[in-house]
Amino acid sequence: MTHHDLALIGFGGVNRALAEIIRDRGAALVDDLGFGLRVVAITDLRLGSLMQSDGIDLDAALAMTGADTFAGMPGGHAEPRNDYVIRNTTADVIAEATFTNPVDGEPAISHVRAALESGKSVTTTNKGPVALAGAALNRLAAENGARFEYEGSVMSGTPVLRLAGETLKGLRITRIQGILNGTSNFVLGRMEEGKSLADAVAEAQALGYAEADPTADIEGSDVQLKVVILANEVLGAQLTTADVPRTGISDITASDVIAAAAAGEHWKLIGTVSRDESGVISASVQPLALGADHPLAAVSGATNAVAFTTDLLGTVTVSGPGAGRIETAYALLSDIIAIDAHQKSYAGAVR
Ligand SMILES: NC(=O)c1ccc[n+]([C@@H]2O[C@H](COP(=O)([O-])OP(=O)(O)OC[C@H]3O[C@@H](n4cnc5c(N)ncnc54)[C@H](O)[C@@H]3O)[C@@H](O)[C@H]2O)c1
Ligand SMILES: N[C@@H](CCO)C(=O)O
Questions:
Q1: Of 288, 171, 141, 162, the residue nearest 233 (C-alpha)
Q2: Which residue of 13, 88, 150, 170 sits 20 to 30 Å from the alpha carbon of 101, by its own alpha carbon?
Q3: Which residues make up the CATH 3.30.360.10 domain(s) of the chain?
């Protein structure tokens, strides 16, 4: 039986949930997947870093709070030392789940680069590296015989990127339109029920949906990153965030939302990518009041949905959780499964 050793960079909601899945379902996963998982390094801005090549006691790590640091533990240090840990850990897979920086993607881009340069594969839910440096990081992965996987960067654990890349091949996709931010969709739904925007955002934060700075959810920059990822990954575009005009939901009032609902419409923050007849790709992010007959109008709470308009199949819509700690940790697990499958098929091919 093979196994994969993991280094978790950022030990917040998502990577903690991955540690919980490994702790609680590790034995069943061995049976289901044919490989074992062990965490051998953790870094975090608040906790510092911990490296134990025989495997970290996940109960002890999960019991740590923001008031603790790893300093007193064997292999522990009060500083995160991300670059040192990523380059020197015995892990073969790095799980990057630090804050998304929508402006320049740092320091996560540097974390991913350090991992790939040292021949380690990366799974990430962080949208910054994928949207702002995806092509360069994919090239770096190929040059170093490693994999760069990021299913959770769009719609958390709900499969979209791998689904589009693998099972919609051969179709001509002319439009991708979706509800791509769980927090804003949850907030608009709560406002329809009479809550204020501020109270609804606080609720989304408590549920683990929101970004560390929820402005990214409310002002549309989170959707802007996801639209860039969809355009570049699915349609082979080379868009940057500067190419995607964006309007968020902060100017929509509770009374707008309630009045629209009374008229049978629902406000949604919509990301759109279109390819015209001549192949030019454009994208936008804006709130729209959708009539009840629109396929995205009934998507509620933190659920996301994306509709692919295709030539041979008509419109294919995928919906599922778009945020949440466990749901997003599942995306990391699905990436590790893809990394394992790729390594095994490569080993089979060179044998
Ligand atoms: N929570 C979700 O529903 C969800 C869904 C999809 C994608 N994501 C993305 O996944 C990532 C993680 O999300 P989360 O909900 O776990 O966030 P979180 O805020 O709960 O955790 C992030 C952790 O990273 C740590 N961190 C930040 N910068 C660091 C650095 N430079 N070095 C070491 N540690 C650092 C923080 O201390 C924190 O513990 C984010 O990029 C987010 O955008 C989250
Ligand atoms: N904050 C994001 C997390 C998923 O990327 C959301 O609410 O959709």
A1: 162
A2: 88
A3: 161-321
The neighbour count for residue 117, using CB atoms within 10 Å, is 15
pLDDT at position 1: 67
Q: Which residues contact 342 (CB under 8 A, 6 or more apart)?
A: 147
Positions marked active-site: 226
CATH pick for 2-157+326-349 out of 3.40.50.10540, 3.30.420.40, 3.40.50.720, 3.40.630.10: 3.40.50.720
Q: What is the 186 CA–ligand 2 centroid distance (Å)?
A: 10
Give nearest CA residue, ligand 1 atom 30. Answer: 45
CA triple 267-268-269, angle to 5 deg: 135
Homologous superfamily of 161-321: Dihydrodipicolinate Reductase; domain 2 (3.30.360.10)
Beta bridge partners, 124, equal 96
Q: What is the pLDDT of residue 321?
A: 96
Q: Which residues line ligand 2 (CB under 6 A)?
A: 156, 181-183, 209-211, 217, 222, 322-323
Cis peptide before 245 (omega within 30 of 0): no
Ligand 1 atom nearest to 100, measured from its CA: 41
Residue range 187-201, pLDDT digits in tens: 999 999 999 999 999
| Ligand that lies nearest to the alpha carbon of residue 49, given by its number in the listed order | 1
CA 44–ligand 1 middle distance (angstroms): 10
pTM summary value: 0.96
The secondary structure of 133-182 as a DSSP string is HHHHHHHHHHHTT--EE-GGGTTTTS--HHIIIIISTT--EEEEEEE--H
